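Fresh eyes needed here. Have a critical look at this protein's tokenised backbone.
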Amino acid sequence: MAGARMRRVDEAMRAVLSEAISRDLQDPRVGFVTVTGVKTSPDLRHARVYVSVMGDDADRRATLEGLAAAHGFLQGRISSALRLKHTPSLTFDYDESVDRGMRISQLLDELPPRPEHDDE
């Protein structure tokens, strides 16, 4: 039961953060960001926010710096939108799963075509 509750809390936080970042965050360092997931500690004191960022390494670094600088604003949004015992301290991490997926797709595209076999 606690696992299901934590998943709901994580998803609710992801939704609140996604909206706040896309609509209200005015930091010019923050580019096109997608909040891909949130993992909250069981005591609700800390939350690791996973984001995907469009652009190169410099864009990614600048966006993560902007998000880190805005953590207080974003925590306030969580506090006002969700009823939690504690408002978690936010840490932002780049989600590399999108990059890995694109790399796997690229590798698959580079494979030579499979020869067709006649079963006769």
